[in-house]
Write a structure and sequence with these properties.
Blueprint lengths: L1 H11 L38 E5 L16 E4 L4 E4 L6 E5 L12 E5 H7 L3 E4 L1 H5 L9 E5 L6 H8 L4 E5 L6 H14 L6 E6 L5 H17 L5 E5 L6 H14 L8 E4 L10 H12 L6 E5 L5 H4 L5 E7 L2 E6 L2 E8 H14 L8
Parallel strand pairs: 1-4, 1-10, 4-5, 5-6, 6-7, 7-8, 8-9, 9-10, 11-12, 12-13
Antiparallel strand pairs: 2-3, 13-14, 14-15
Helix pairs in contact: 1-6, 5-6, 6-7
Bound molecules: iron/sulfur cluster (SF4).
Length: about 350
C-alpha cells in the first residue's frame, strides 16, 4: 500500500500540466516494441544499449574518490582503475577541472566554455551555442534541448550533423507525455540524432525518486525511445544509489542487462520451501553472473509456467525436494533441498554461464 500511495501521489502531481502539442501523425505502435532508429555517435545510439550519463556539474570538487559512486575505484598501489559492472558511461562535470587521469571507459562532458579552453572530453552546448558558428568537437557534441527549441532551423542543422547527441529535458509536469511528443516530432522529421533523456528530480525520498524516475524514464525506454538516460537528483539520495537506480531502470526495461536477474513467485499456500531465505541464498552465490536469469518458484504446479524466460529454474517439487530446470526442460529431479543450491551452481557451470566471484 505505501508504494501504491506514493505512485498515486506521483501521478496526482502531473494534473493540470502545461498543454502539450497534439499528435497528428503517430509513428509509434503501442502494441509492438520497436526501437527508434538512431545514428551511432561514439558508443551512443545505433545498436548500442542505452548509456548512463551522471551529472556532477554542481559539485565543487571532483576527485578520484568521487567516482567510486559511479562504479570506478582507483587503486593507489596499482595506479589502476577497477571498473564495476555498473560503471557509468559519461560524466557531466560542468565547469569543474579534473586534475587527475580519469578511467578510459568514462567519457567526460564539460560546459562548452570550459571545453573550449582545454578541448578535453566532449562539450555540452545550449541550443544558441550549437546554432552559432563557434568551434565544435570533431568527435561528439551534446546539445541540451527541450520541446520548445525544436524548430526547423535546429532540425535541419541536426539532420546534417553526424556528431550530435541530444540531451533532452522537459519542464512540463507531465514529463513522459511531453518527451514522447518530442520523439514523435523527431521520427516524423526523419531526424535520427541519438537522444539521452534527462530526468530531473529534487528533494525526494529515495523511494519517491525510484518511483518517479522509473515511471518516467522506464515508460519511454519500453516504447523503444532513448539512447541513454541521466538522473539528476540533488538532495534525494546518495550518488551511488542514483547510479544503481539508473542501471536498475535499464535492467528492468531489458534494454541493458548488467546484473543477474531473478524471477521469483510471490509465494502462496503451495510454496514448498522458505522462499525468502532460499532466494537470499541463491542470490548470495549467483549475483555476479551478469545477464543470467534465474527463476525461483515455490511449487511445480504453476512454477514452471510462471518462470517466463528464465535461463535456469529452481522449483519446489515436494517437501524438501527441488527440481532444477535449464530453460523449460527439467534436468535434475527431486534434489534434496540442502544440496540444491550446489546442484544449481553445477548446472550453471555445465552450461558455461558460470564465472568465479571476484
Ligand atoms: S509458483 Fe506455486 S508456490 Fe509460487 S505462487 Fe505460484 S502457485 Fe504459489
Amino acid at each position: 500500500m505505501p508504494v501504491a500511495n506514493n505512485l498515486l501521489a506521483h501521478f496526482n502531481n502531473i494534473e493540470h500540466h502545461d498543454p502539450i502539442q497534439k499528435i497528428k501523425k503517430n509513428p509509434l505502435n503501442p502494441f509492438e516494441y520497436s526501437k527508434r532508429i538512431s545514428n551511432k555517435v561514439q558508443n551512443i545510439g545505433g545498436k548500442n544499449p542505452p548509456v548512463i550519463l551522471a551529472n556532477f556539474s554542481e559539485k565543487e570538487k571532483i576527485t578520484p574518490a568521487t567516482l567510486f559512486a559511479l562504479g570506478y575505484k582507483y587503486s593507489v598501489p596499482l595506479d589502476k582503475w577497477h571498473i564495476s559492472e555498473m560503471a557509468t558511461d559519461y560524466l557531466f562535470v560542468g565547469d569543474n577541472n579534473l586534475n587527475f587521469e580519469t578511467p578510459g571507459t568514462l567519457g567526460i562532458i564539460y560546459n562548452y566554455n570550459s571545453w573550449k579552453k582545454h578541448k578535453k572530453g566532449f562539450p555540452m552546448l545550449s541550443v544558441n551555442e550549437y546554432l552559432s558558428e563557434i568551434e565544435k568537437s570533431s568527435k561528439m557534441n551534446i546539445i541540451n534541448i527541450c520541446f520548445s527549441n525544436l524548430n526547423t532551423q535546429l532540425i535541419n542543422k541536426l539532420k546534417s550533423d553526424k556528431n550530435a547527441v541530444i540531451f533532452l529535458d522537459s519542464l512540463n509536469k507531465n514529463t513522459v507525455a511531453e518527451l514522447r511528443r518530442v520523439f514523435v516530432k523527431l521520427i516524423n522529421n526523419d531526424l535520427n540524432t541519438p537522444v539521452i533523456i534527462n530526468g530531473k528530480y529534487k528533494n525526494l525520498s529515495h523511494e519517491q525518486l525510484q518511483l518517479s524516475a522509473s515511471t518516467n524514464l522506464g515508460a519511454l525506454l519500453l516504447d523503444g525511445l532513448g539512447d541513454g538516460i541521466s538522473i539528476h537528483a540533488p538532495n534525494c539520495t546518495s550518488n551511488q544509489k542514483v547510479n544503481s537506480l539508473a542501471f536498475g531502470i535499464l535492467q528492468a526495461t531489458r534494454t541493458r542487462i548488467s546484473k543477474t536477474e531473478y524471477i521469483s513467485c510471490p509465494s502462496c499456500g503451495r510454496t514448498l520451501f522458505d522462499l525468502q531465505s532460499t532466494t537470499a541464498k541463491i542470490r548470495n552465490v549467483t549475483d555476479h553472473l551478469k545477464g543470467v536469469k534465474i527463476g525461483i518458484m515455490g511449487c511445480i504446479v504453476n512454477g514452471p509456467g510462471e518462470m517466463a524466460d528464465a535461463d535456469y529454474g529452481y522449483v519446489g517439487t515436494g517437501p524438501g525436494k527441488i527440481t532444477l530446470y535449464k530453460e523449460k526442460a527439467v534436468v535434475k529431479r527431486n534434489v534434496p533441498e540442502e544440496d540444491a543450491v550446489g546442484a544449481l551452481i553445477d548446472l550453471i557451470k555445465e552450461h558455461g554461464d558460470w564465472t568465479e566471484k571476484k
